[in-house]
Amino acid sequence: MDLPCVQWQDHVAQKWTELDSELKERFTSLREIDDVFKCALTLTTQDDLDFLQSVSAGHSVQKDAEQAAKCRERGNSSFKTRDYTAATLHYSQGICFAPQSSEQLSLCYANRSAALYHLQHYEESLDDIEEALKNGYPSHLLHKLEDRRTQCLKHLSGGQKGKEDHHSPASNNPDTVKVPSVGPLTYGICPQATVDFSPEKGRHLVAVERIAAGEVILTDRPYSCVLIPGMGEVEGKRGNLDAERGVFGIEHSPGLRFLSAVTVATLYLRLSKVGPPPASWALSGPLGRNKQSPDEEGGNADWSMELWLLGSAVLRQFLQLRCNTQAILKVQDTGAENSPVQSSREIRIASAIFPTLSLLNHSCCPNTSLVFSSGITVDPSDFSESVAEDRGTARGVTVTVRAAKGIAAGQDILHCYGPHSSRMVTQERQHLLQEQYYFLCQCEACTRTQEEEEGAEGRWQPSGVGGSQHESGLLCGKCKGPLKRSSVDKGTGFVCSQSSCGHCISSSEVSHRLQEIRVNLEKAVDFMERERPDEALRLLNRAQSQPGLILAETHPLQGELADAMARACATIGDWNNAASHLERSALAITSQYGDDSIELGRQLFKLAQLHFNGGARGPALSVIPKVRRLLCLHCGPHCYELQELQAMEDCLRG
């Protein structure tokens, strides 16, 4: 979850810095949400309200028909590409912006009803059709809504008939196989896993039987989902924490808790000045009569009870969302429209709360893979018979969790919250996890000693994946022997491992050379984006021949360089050289991520494309089975890459 804007963060941080040490200690010692909120109210001043007003002035939230139209246009673009979930989110934003009883409001409702229809949410589609009609939907378009309403009712009546048939006397036939029902606790979880609890781990998932690699462990639909403005690229952290740890949201750092509490308290005071609360907020019963509020002796008495309870609830949710929001990721094609080879990156399109997924604890070397989907249905064939009936109804945004490796009975089922052992060293991972999720990670990867990780400069190579932990991935510029950390003045430089050479190079020099390579790589990618592949190739060749330093074939940066060279060669139709470079890139990816990684699967998928486009029938048919195995393992048998792969194979064999 995003924090408030930077100006407000800075304002509250300054307030925290200037706070009396006794007040700081008192605030830090509070354990109950109600007490935290009550304390924040006593510390919030008119200066805070005035600053909030000045910051808010630049972020208008007024109804705006023009903004509503822009949201609707973005929804239409997503609708045309059949991304109905994204379209629904855009139309929902348009509904928020559209003025009451306006044509834009009716059009947004109507368009959202169409997206919901394609997602098979027929009842919700009917609700939106009614709202469109109430808000003056154009008469010349009414036939569209009538047709859609008829189709929704037809589907709903057909589904009801199916349920009646299922529960008819005929279904009591003793020869009929009865499908076991699935209770609320295990909804979305395969029979081989169950929910366990311990004081140290909270609620978490554990395998009760062996789970084979590639098997679906759970699917989940979000309790709530919000589209990310601009759908920015994800780098590093991905929000998610097990539900038990985030129940009260009180284990945050004092500074962050203070920021959250003062933010909610300021909003509370702001709302308390706008007039009496809605009549629907009236409380009754013992809670409403007896609950004490901090405003009893002053302020707006009409607001005091209802708004104080709301403030505490909002603060609780605010703190929970910081740890429990999951980024919804999507692999997006980033190549040019006429590009013969797929170029993709992972982007964040939305944030959501997945109730069941939140049960998974973190590991920096997880045993699961996640795939997000916005498709119409989830294929029931991915699940065991005992949960297939419920699974067939999962539509819209879904997440599917598969076993990335075999999981033995009794083992925890673990998911990576972002910092992964194949990308970061232990100290960096633990810092990021402590900063966002407030726990010190002690997973298998983090319990390795720091000494095991030393020797890597500008790279990270996990043990058991590709070579010794003490290999740097760098070669001597004189004899091309492997460089290793110097045993003298440890950590200050590298020395050639060949005793006959003994060439030394300082850490600062290595960092400088690696930075030069990265700069040239970025420039080369920019050249390719501007359709200047020849210049990109010249720059990449120059980057590979940095004086005094050579990257080993397994160095991650060497993999990036080789991938960029493959892309440049493919752009000019040099398929053989493109495939050769991509094979080198795959070697580096194997070293960093492992033989069974999805990263290797995607790289080999590009290699299959290159062989296919170059007419290299034998090499293409040779690599396709490897790609199929990895994609099935992590993404399931119905991902779109496998469909393209099958089409290539059929063409080659035909």
UniProtKB/TrEMBL annotation:
Protein name, as recorded: SET and MYND domain-containing protein 4 isoform X1
Localization in the cell: Cytoplasm; Nucleus
Keyword Ribosomal protein: no
Major subcellular location class: cytoplasm
Domain SET: residue ranges: 191-418
Top-rank lineage group of the source organism: Eukaryota
Keyword terms, alphabetized: Cytoplasm, Methyltransferase, Nucleus, S-adenosyl-L-methionine, Transferase
Highest classification ranks of the organism: Eukaryota, Metazoa, Chordata, Craniata, Vertebrata
Organism of provenance: Lates japonicus (Japanese lates)
Gene Ontology MF term list: histone deacetylase binding; methyltransferase activity
GO cellular component: cytoplasm; nucleus
The keyword S-adenosyl-L-methionine is annotated on this UniProt entry: yes
UniProt record, GO biological process: heart development; methylation
PANTHER family documented for this protein: SET AND MYND DOMAIN-CONTAINING PROTEIN 4
Stretch list, region Disordered: 155-177
Record field: catalytic activity: L-lysyl-[protein] + S-adenosyl-L-methionine = N(6)-methyl-L-lysyl-[protein] + S-adenosyl-L-homocysteine + H(+)
CDD domains reported for this sequence: SET_SMYD4 (cd10536)
